[in-house]
Amino acid sequence: MTHKNYFSDRLKTKTDQELQEIIDSNAYVADAKLAAKWILAERGKPTSYDPPQQAIKNDKPWISIKPNHSARKKYYEWRMLSFGLGCLISAFYIGFDSLIITRNSLTALTGTTRYAKVQVESVTTRGRLGHKVKSRKATLYFALNEHPKTFRLIENIGQAHKHPAYESISQSLQSAKSVTIWIRKSQHHAPTPKVFQIDANGQTLLDLNTVKMKFAWVFVLLLCLGFVMIGIALNSKYPRLIRKLMGRDSSDDDHNHALA
């Protein structure tokens, strides 16, 4: 037999009528019909059945052919790479700059509390793969009578409904006779400067080191997340180069194939 596939040996005992019924039926896969056509042709009874192009290339129909996902793969590689670079930029622009700040870089604004309140609201953000993530954020708003500025502290509280620390600071500010807010000297004229320390009646409500530790955690998180996402994207796009940089060259792959 000139042509042969997986079904050829199974169908060679069939009669001409049975083979023709296989070709005409929709219950059989294309390769089965193709084998029936070849057998009939060998018997001198050619048919007009024209199989799909894919059936000719695939001689193992029980193995599913995976669609080409190269475009989707490139899309996710680009997204992961962009997200990783964004994390690194944010780490150095937001976290590291605030991490190395000292008391000499700050200036004090002293006055009396005009208002202080805590607001909790639901927020929806996008995850690293584009899916929606719902959570809540707490914002402490406060201002001083002597300075035309609005101060605020923001923190994501997950699924909680209150922020006890912010509530405590708000109550202390409302009852305090004197409040001192520490901000950057470079933000002295900013309408909403970043707050690094809060003192009320000589008592520290929010310490500079606590704020710096918070930024340190953000810095490390963004830094690690950035390197991980960039590493995954580059490993997906340039697997051989990454293996070579990690000490695994093509000889390792050849050795593995030889063992297989």
From TrEMBL:
Keywords: Membrane, Transmembrane, Transmembrane helix. It comes from Agaribacillus aureus. The chain crosses the membrane at residues 78-96, 215-234. The keyword Transmembrane helix applies. This is DUF3592 domain-containing protein.
